[in-house]
């Protein structure tokens, strides 16, 4: 029965959606649609979707050769799992009728009912509501995929799928609701998160730390990346896709999108250069791997601030984030936490730095403008989100482990996850 349950559950979901789903309708004024905004959001959604296969290359290149396929598939499969889950209930939990500003009703948009072609003014005034839902889907896809870097080379594939589903429903959806829903708790506190510094990167970092601690160390930790060109390719795809990630969060072809576009590029550039120059300053090689990690850290850090800061601010954010994350990686190694691909020091720490500096630098409401309210709520949000995502994720790892043992057997780990989990090999 255990081997058949995945197929049975998927079949039931498909049947539910077939009978309960409604045809695409307007449910509003189609005349409110702006063609330019719609075109840009279609492009942005595609950009963000590209980030997930980009992440697959980025992560796949950094593990050992015997687990490249498995690591890449852990990212890639999220495209399928979360897409179906999002239509079924995920979008409704994130953006449905609010329960106390914490979670949405699962019935509001169940099976994409009431998700129409006309704009929903509560979320987006000039693009189809369906497009808004699909844009948000891309964020939901990449979030659990990012976590996989922390437990790469030692997790059962089926168990990961179960954890991904639980995380998306119980961690991601509430965070998205609290941060981006008009009645969301954090949003009404005035917490600024333009494109997912809290919702995506902080949650990823804390879940990654919890996963590394829960699953423990690999039996054989190989620190030499298997394929640096894969890492460079993945970084390029992620950098490219991040323009949709950040600029698309303006929800239109407008000046906020342009500002976010510029800030995204500059923060990543500054962070990449800071990383390799800092390495050289400390008598280490200026490596391709370091350049790639630095670029990603800059992209992570600018995400919450992308539409709220200026050019100089974005350079500063990239500079500071690179330094802090660089030291965090080394500190992580000293603590001997086997976060395989340094997800917590990169995404968790990068996201924290970004959220703090957003509260400091955000136009008109930041600490540098003499305002303290936004900063104080950001600090409170950081503590609450960190605690919620760390302990919540740790509990989900435990639940998953009880239902489906998470860690592969020792002999399977030595063989590599490509062979033991998928019956495939990079040399086939």
Care to describe what's here?
There is one protein chain. The chain has 428 residues and is an all-alpha fold. It starts with a helix and ends in a 6-residue tail after the last helix. It has helices at residues 5-20, 35-60, 68-76, 78-95, 129-147, 157-180, 185-189, 197-215, 228-247, 255-281, 288-302, 311-334, 343-361, 373-403, 410-415, 417-422, and strands at residues 98-99, 103-104. Helix 5 (129-147) crosses helix 6, helix 11 packs across helix 13 and helix 13 (343-361) runs antiparallel to helix 14. The protein has a single domain (35-422), classed as Ammonium transporter AmtB like domains (Ammonium transporter fold). The radius of gyration is 21 Å and the shape is globular. The mean pLDDT is 94. A hairpin with a 3-residue loop joins strand 1 and strand 2.
Helix content: 55-70%
What is the arithmetic mean of pLDDT? 94
Strand % is: under 5%
Q: Helix and strand string, N-terminal first?
A: HHHHEEHHHHHHHHHHHH
Individual helix count = 16
Number of strands: 2
Annotated CATH topology: Ammonium transporter fold
CATH class: Mainly Alpha
- Unreliable stretches (pLDDT < 50, length at least 5) are none
Q: How are the strands of the largest sheet arranged? A: 1-2
Net shape = globular
Total domain count: 1
Distance between the termini: 31 Å
Name of the CATH homologous superfamily: Ammonium transporter AmtB like domains
Q: Give the radius of gyration.
A: 21 Å
Based on the coordinates given, report the CATH architecture: Orthogonal Bundle
Biggest sheet overview: 2 strands, antiparallel
Structural class: mainly alpha
């Amino acid at each position: 029965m255990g081997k058949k349950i995945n197929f049975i559950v998927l079949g039931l979901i498909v049947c539910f959606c077939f009978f309960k789903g409604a045809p695409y309708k307007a449910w509003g004024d189609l005349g409110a649609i702006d063609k330019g905004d719609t075109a840009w959001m279609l492009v942005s959604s595609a950009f963000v979707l590209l980030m997930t296969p980009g992440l697959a290359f980025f992560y796949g290149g950094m593990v050992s050769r015997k687990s490249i396929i498995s690591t890449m598939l852990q990212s890639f499969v999220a495209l399928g799992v979360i897409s179906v889950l999002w239509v079924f209930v995920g979008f409704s939990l994130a953006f449905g009728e609010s329960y106390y500003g914490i979670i949405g009703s699962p019935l509001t948009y169940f099976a994409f009912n009431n998700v129409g072609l006309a704009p929903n003014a509560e979320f987006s005034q000039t693009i189809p509501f369906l497009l808004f839902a699909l844009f948000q889907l891309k964020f939901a896809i990449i979030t659990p995929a990012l976590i996989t870097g922390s437990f790469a080379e030692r997790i059962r594939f089926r168990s990961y799928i179960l954890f991904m589903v639980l995380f998306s429903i119980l961690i991601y959806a509430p965070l998205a609701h609290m941060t981006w829903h008009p009645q969301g708790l954090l949003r009404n506190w005035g917490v600024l998160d333009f494109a997912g510094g809290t919702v995506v990167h902080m949650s990823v970092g804390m879940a990654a730390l919890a996963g590394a601690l829960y699953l423990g160390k690999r039996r054989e930790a190989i620190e030499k990346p298997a394929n640096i060109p894969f890492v460079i390719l993945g970084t390029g795809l992620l950098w490219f896709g991040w323009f949709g990630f950040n600029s698309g969060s303006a929800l239109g072809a407008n000046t906020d999108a342009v500002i976010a576009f510029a800030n995204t590029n500059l923060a990543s550039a500054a962070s990449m250069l800071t990383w390799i120059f800092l390495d050289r300053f400390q008598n280490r090689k200026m490596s391709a791997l370091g350049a790639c990690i630095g670029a990603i850290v800059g992209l992570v850090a600018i995400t919450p601030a992308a539409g709220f800061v200026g050019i100089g601010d974005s350079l500063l954010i990239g500079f500071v984030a690179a330094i802090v994350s660089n030291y965090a990686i080394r500190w992580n190694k000293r603590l001997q936490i086997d976060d395989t691909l340094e997800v917590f020091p990169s995404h968790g720490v990068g996201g924290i730095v970004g959220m703090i500096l957003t509260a400091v630098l955000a136009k008109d409401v930041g600490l540098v403008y003499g305002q303290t309210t936004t900063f104080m709520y950001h600090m409170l949000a950081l503590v609450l989100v960190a605690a919620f995502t760390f302990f919540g994720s740790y509990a989900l790892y435990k639940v998953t482990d009880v239902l489906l043992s998470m860690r592969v057997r020792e002999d399977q780990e030595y063989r590599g996850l490509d062979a033991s989990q998928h019956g495939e090999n990079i040399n086939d």
